[in-house]
């Protein structure tokens, strides 16, 4: 099973990366019982911020970002964690998935995704349902039932550990099932869908 972790934390270390690592460790451990060890790849969006911005102006991802996109598209399960900004996901987090969908609109279709978020107060816990869940539903991902929000006071609390165990277990089970049932996606040549310029001009002529 290939797990890809997308962390939008900005500081080093960050609570966002800490939550992402704990979710990945439990998901990998749940999968490992009687099966080959899970492959875990961590993508730190902080390191790709400039490449993400350039993708919107050039239309093409730089090699490091293209490699990250390929990892997400080929994952059996994705763990996506963002800090909360203005009661929603961070701009960097949203931009990464916007750029991914522009490059390959089917990259997350059918992929199990575990959503997580971190913030300073428990008041922002609804970000999971009013922002993150709709985002990944729009990307046609399969969002696991339990999301994990960690406020500052949650670290070290028993409740957080229980939510991590439950959410990671759901992801491991769903990813294991879909990884065997999902057919490999055919390679797509983006240039095959480009409309020839002559056809575009013809459509603009009167009666065209």
Automatic annotation (TrEMBL):
Residues 1-155 form the NADPH-dependent FMN reductase-like domain. Transmembrane segments: none annotated. Keywords: Flavoprotein, FMN, Oxidoreductase. It holds the Pfam family FMN_red. It comes from the Bacteria. The keyword Nucleotidyltransferase does not apply. NCBIfam families: LLM_duo_CE1759 (TIGR04037). This is NAD(P)H-dependent oxidoreductase.
């Amino acid at each position: 099973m290939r797990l890809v972790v997308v962390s939008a934390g900005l500081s080093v270390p960050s609570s966002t990366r800490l939550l992402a690592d704990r979710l990945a460790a439990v998901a990998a451990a749940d999968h490992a019982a009687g099966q080959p060890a899970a492959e875990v790849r961590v993508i730190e969006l902080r390191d790709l911020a400039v490449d993400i911005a350039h993708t919107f102006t050039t239309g093409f991802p730089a090699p490091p970002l293209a490699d990250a996109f390929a990892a997400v598209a080929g994952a059996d399960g994705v763990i996506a964690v963002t800090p909360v900004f203005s009661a929603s996901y961070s701009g960097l987090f949203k931009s990464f998935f916007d750029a991914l969908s522009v490059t390959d609109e089917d990259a997350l279709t059918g992929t199990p995704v575990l959503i997580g978020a971190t913030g300073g107060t428990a008041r922002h816990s609804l970000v999971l349902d009013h922002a993150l869940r709709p985002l990944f539903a729009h990307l046609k991902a399969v969002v696991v039932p339990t999301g994990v929000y960690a406020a500052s006071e949650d670290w070290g609390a028993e409740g957080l550990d229980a939510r991590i165990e439950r959410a990671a277990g759901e992801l491991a089970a769903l990813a294991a099932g879909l990884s065997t049932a999902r057919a490999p996606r055919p390679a797509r040549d983006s240039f095959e869908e480009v409309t020839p310029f002559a056809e575009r001009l013809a459509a603009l002529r009167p009666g065209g």
